[in-house]
Each structure stands twice: as structure tokens, then as C-alpha cells.
Design brief:
Layout lengths: L1 H25 L22 H12 L2 E6 L2 E6 L2 H10 L11 H6 L13 H14 L2 H5 L2 H21 L3 E2 H18 L5 H4 L4 H13 L3 H4 L11 H26 L9 H11 L8 H32 L1 H15 L14 H13 L9 E2 L4 E3 L2 E3 L4 E4 L1 H4 L44 H18 E4 L13 E2 L5 E2 L4 E6 L4
Parallel strand pairs: 2-7
Antiparallel strand pairs: 1-2, 3-11, 4-7, 5-6, 8-11, 9-10
Helix pairs in contact: 7-8, 8-14, 10-12, 12-14, 14-16, 14-18, 15-16
Family: Belongs to the cytochrome P450 family.
GO molecular function, one term: metal ion binding
Protein name: Cytochrome P450 71AU50-like
């Protein structure tokens, strides 16, 4: 029976591939490399798809067609092309494709990140923007951030006295996890409350599963067979999150009403659910989906950004010294950096932008989805195409950036280029309708953590490792982090 099913699947795939080729000949598709039957271009992707697509696009152009199994993909690799898809024709490409891992991990794609575009998604985004990620709500957690950062700095001081190496990657991940938990859930949860593997490991596993090339997505006939075991792993992980979030909500029900000042984000969502006043059906599944969005987005992306920024500062001691000098001038050497200082730290802002250019934490963003057939720049873009915006390639475009592989924060001196989606040569948070609604919170977290690390400590590599030997290898997922943890020796530099 299984063998018969396999051959029926192969025949269906071949028929679909031939039909797709016949249709493609009638249309003016974007240029692309030559594929092979059935797989299309899947065999061209390795461990780092964003790097592979960047390399291939150099030969085929900034709007490139590639076929992954049954799925047509349009790879976008320049600022001008990104503007066409994310601004000029934003409404056509504002949806998300069906995605097997996201289906199980986001309660049938009820979340903001993977939800299909439509009335429900628009109302959910409005809720997040006005209620959960507003300036007022973000400001209400300011004292919490100050408290957590104080504990974070203290945790390094003992290592500084002993002159021993610390796992900076693990420390930053713990900090962002604790900040996220207090902001979203109202209190810290121990790692074991989620799973024996802990928050960071489970969130990273989720990011890898969602980004993993899944045959079930590219060949729907194969989805039921789960040849790679991804469905099994994803369902198991989804149960971990579901059990934990149910416990969080039950804890909030037992705690009862709290004052507006003490309300965390789950309190706010539970109040909306209980009031019945939302513009769409809003139940526990929606709360769990948004909790996962907020936890993953505020924890993993911030931690990865900080790791890459510190890595580049270590490799560029002159930039490190210049940033420390700015911090000394604005803050002095007798206190920690406060959020009120951030607006005056112009060079810090340049350093963050330059790191986000070279190391976009979501190098392929989240795939967009064509809701209809459309012509873009003279090319036919078929309905249901996936649009992959290659941030990694855009940040290295030699037509836009001088000496693009080099870390030069000064390139932003006197520049109005921002990271909020208005300038298409720098899109770390996306743009248009699907741009990240948590930009403000993300930038505050990253700039605060980096400024404390650089202001309070000098850093050196252990075991006489030279700066040239610093490992900069990547671990691919929706969020691309360092492949190996950053181990550093701190030296406290403030005046007690």
C-alpha cells in the first residue's frame, strides 16, 4: 500500500512539474537558474540558504524566479526590487503562505507573524499595536528593564574580579528571556516550567523547525508521510508551548484583577477576551498564539542582535573605543546607562544600524505570499508565489553600500537612513503591512543591553585567541544567531 502511494505521489509530482513548465513558457517569468525535474532548485540550497540565494542572484538579477518542488518562489535581492514588493504592490503580497510548522506552532496560524492577510489579521495587528506594543505599554515596563539590567551587570562583576571567561551568549539570552517573561507573563518562570531544555533551547528549536526546508510544504502529497520527521517534532514542541501557556493563563485567572499599572500583556489580553468587546472572535488559542509571537520576537531576535553587535565591536577595537568615549561623555563613569540617555547616543545608533546591515537577524524575513497574479517590473508573478526578501543580499549590495563587507558605522554619519521600513536598503524589521510592530521595543532592548556591556566593561577573548580568529559562523533559522557561543573575559571599568 505504501509503495503504491509513493508511485502515485511521484506521478502526480511529475505531472505537476510538466504543467508548471508549460504554464511558465507562456508567461514572462523573472530570470533564474536552470532547475531539475521534481526538485526544481531545492538542491541548490545548503546550510545557509540566505548566502546561497545571494550568490545565485549575482548571476540572475535582483528579481529571480526559483521553483522549490511545487512552490514558485520570487527571490528579491535589491532595495529597488524590495520597494516594488513591500511598498508599490504591498497589498498584493501582504499575506503569508500556508506553512506546516507554523500551522501546528501557532494554533492554525492564528498569530500575527504567520497569519493570513484579511479582516482577522488586520484586527489582530490593530490590537497588538494599540494595546500590547503601544508607547505607553512599553514605557510601563521601564523600571523592570532597569532592575533586570542592574542584576545583569552585577552578574559579570564577580567574573571581572576573578578574570575568568563568561558565556556572554548564554547571559544575554537569559536576560532577554527574563525581560520577556516579566513583560508578557508578569513574572519570571524557571526554565523547567517550560521544558527541561529551557527557554532559549526550545525557542531556538522552534525557529529552526519553522525555517527548515520541509518536503511537506514543497510537495503537499508528501506531507502526510512526514519523511523528515518534522511534523512529529513540531507537534511535540507545540504541545510543550500549549501546556505552558495554559498554565500561565490559569495562573492569571487565579491571581484575579490587577490595577492597570501592574497589568502585564497576558492580563491585557485576558481582559479583552473576557469583555467580549473585540472586533473578532478572541479565545485562548489567540492569546496563546500572540504570547508565542511576543516571547520569540522579544527574546531570540534581541539576543542574536546583541551577540552580533558585540562580535563586531570586538573585531573593530577602534569602533569599540569610540563608542565607549561617547558613553563616557553622555553618561559619565559613575552610573549605568538609563533609557533617557539613548536619544543622545548617536554613535551607538550608527553601530546598531551597521550590525543590522551586516547581520540581519531575519535574513530572509518571513516569506510573503502573492494573493493574485500580477506583473512586477515587467515580470509575471503567479498567484500563490512565495516572496523571499533577502535582507542579507540587500545589506551587501555594492550599488548601495561602499565596501559592503566591512563594518563601518561612520557610513551613517549625516544619513537619514532608518531601520523602520521606510528606507529599503536597510530592512531588519521588514516594511509595509507586514513590518514588525515591535520595532520600538526591540530597539530599546538591544541599545540598552549593548550600551551597558560596552560602558561597564572592557572585553577580551580567552586563551590568547586573536581578534582575527574570532569565530563568526552562523546558525541558520528564521533568526540567524552565532553558531558558537561568545566566550569573553570582562573587566569592570566604572568608578565604584
Amino acid at each position: 500500500m505504501e509503495l503504491t502511494w509513493f508511485w502515485l505521489t511521484v506521478i502526480a509530482i511529475l505531472a505537476g512539474s510538466l504543467a508548471s513548465l508549460a504554464t511558465g513558457r507562456k508567461k514572462k517569468m523573472p530570470p533564474g537558474p536552470k532547475g531539475i525535474p521534481i526538485l526544481g532548485h531545492l538542491h541548490m540550497l545548503g546550510k545557509h540558504p540566505h548566502q546561497d540565494l545571494h550568490r545565485i542572484a549575482k548571476h540572475h538579477g535582483p528579481i529571480m524566479y526559483m521553483q522549490f518542488g511545487f512552490v514558485p518562489n520570487i527571490v528579491v535581492s535589491s532595495p529597488q526590487a524590495a520597494e516594488l514588493f513591500l511598498k508599490t504592490h504591498d497589498l498584493v503580497f501582504a499575506s503569508r503562505p500556508p506553512h506546516q510548522a507554523a500551522k501546528y506552532l501557532s494554533w492554525e496560524q492564528r498569530n500575527l507573524i504567520f497569519g493570513a492577510y484579511g479582516p482577522y489579521w488586520r484586527n489582530m495587528r490593530k490590537l497588538c499595536t494599540l494595546e500590547l506594543l503601544s508607547t505607553l505599554k512599553i514605557s510601563s515596563f521601564r523600571s523592570m528593564r532597569r532592575e533586570e539590567l542592574g542584576l545583569f551587570v552585577e552578574s559579570f562583576k564577580e567574573s571581572s574580579k576573578l578574570h575568568v571567561a563568561v558565556d556572554l551568549s548564554a547571559k544575554v539570552s537569559s536576560l532577554t528571556a527574563e525581560m520577556s517573561c516579566r513583560m508578557v507573563f508578569g513574572k519570571k518562570y524557571d526554565d523547567k516550567d517550560l521544558d527541561d531544555r529551557g527557554f532559549k533551547t526550545v525557542i531556538q528549536e522552534m525557529m529552526k523547525l519553522v525555517a527548515a526546508p520541509n518536503l511537506g510544504d514543497y510537495f503537499p502529497f508528501l506531507g502526510v508521510l512526514d519523511l523528515q520527521g518534522l511534523k512529529r517534532k513540531t507537534k511535540a514542541l507545540a504541545k510543550v508551548f500549549d501546556d505552558f501557556f495554559e498554565k500561565v493563563m490559569d495562573d492569571h485567572v487565579r491571581a484575579g484583577d490587577r490595577s492597570d499599572q501592574a497589568k502585564d500583556i497576558v492580563d491585557t489580553m485576558m481582559s479583552i477576551m473576557q469583555s467580549g468587546e473585540s472586533e473578532f472572535q478572541f479565545d485562548r488559542r489567540h492569546i496563546k498564539a500572540i504570547m508565542l509571537d511576543l516571547l520569540a520576537a522579544s527574546m531570540d531576535t534581541a539576543a542574536a542582535s546583541v551577540e552580533w553587535i558585540l562580535s563586531e565591536l570586538l573585531r573593530n577595537p577602534t569602533v569599540m573605543k569610540k563608542l565607549q568615549k561617547e558613553l563616557e561623555q553622555v553618561v559619565g563613569l559613575k552610573r549605568l546607562v538609563e533609557e533617557s540617555d539613548l536619544d543622545q547616543l548617536e554613535y551607538l545608533d550608527m553601530v546598531v544600524k551597521e550590525s543590522l546591515r551586516l547581520h540581519p537577524v531575519a535574513p530572509l524575513l518571513i516569506p510573503h505570499y502573492s494573493r493574485e497574479d500580477i506583473k512586477v517590473n515587467g515580470y509575471d508573478i503567479p498567484k500563490e508565489s512565495r516572496i523571499l526578501v533577502n535582507n542579507y543580499a540587500i545589506g551587501r549590495d555594492p550599488n548601495v553600500w561602499t565596501d559592503p563587507e566591512t563594518f563601518i558605522p561612520e557610513r551613517f554619519t549625516g544619513s537619514n537612513i532608518d531601520v523602520r521600513g521606510q528606507h529599503f536598503q536597510l530592512l531588519p524589521f521588514g516594511s509595509g503591512r507586514r513590518g514588525c510592530p515591535g520595532i520600538q521595543l526591540g530597539l530599546i532592548q538591544v541599545r540598552l543591553i549593548v550600551s551597558q556591556l560596552v560602558h561597564c566593561f572592557d572585553w577580551q577573548l580567552p586563551n590568547d585567541i586573536s581578534l582575527e580568529e574570532l569565530d563568526m559562523n552562523e546558525e541558520f533559522g528564521i533568526v540567524v544567531s552565532r553558531a558558537n557561543h561568545l566566550m569573553l573575559i570582562p573587566t569592570f571599568r566604572l568608578q565604584n
